[in-house]
Amino acid sequence: MLIFLKGCGNYQLTLNNLNFSLTEEELIAFTNYLKRIDIDYWEKEYQHSIYKKKIPIPTLQSNFIILITRLELYELLLLLSTESSNEMLSYHDLKNGICWN
Questions:
Q1: How much is the pTM?
Q2: d(CA 42, CA 73)
Q3: What are phi and psi of 42, to 5 degrees?
Q4: What secondary structure, in 3-state letters, does the chain show?
Q5: Main-chain phi, psi angles of 15, to 5 degrees
Q6: CB–CB of 59/52 below 8 Å?
Q7: Are 55 and 69 in contact (CB under 8 A)?
Q8: Can you tell me the distance from the alpha carbon of 16 to that of 73, in angstroms, rounded to the nearest whole number?
Q9: In whole angstroms, how far apart are CA 90 and each of 22, 27, 62, 93?
Q10: Could you read off the pLDDT of 27-65 as tens digits, one per residue?
């Protein structure tokens, strides 16, 4: 989920249990960083890791690294994509279906 906070002009980016609060410049830099990740390199580098998530995203805190999967990276890139698309979702594209409350 990507939310623009009109009051402060920042963005809230949420994926699974990750939540980022970013300025527009930080969001652009983060998107550009994600686009440059060499997925195959990291999956090979950590192929013997005990963790399923193999793609690291470093943080400014030296003892904290975010690990994501290939699918999570694709989801982030799709969410942050600014390219317009005429692609329509079908009922089957929704992970948990539709809840008609």
A1: 0.76
A2: 12
A3: -70, -35
A4: CEEEECCCCEEEEEECCEEEEECHHHHHHHHHHHHHCCHHHHHHHCCCCCCCCCEEEECCCCCCEEEECHHHHHHHHHHHCCCCCCCCCCHHHCCCCCCCC
A5: -140, 120
A6: no
A7: yes
A8: 12
A9: 31, 29, 43, 5
A10: 999 999 999 999 999 999 999 999 999 999 998 899 999
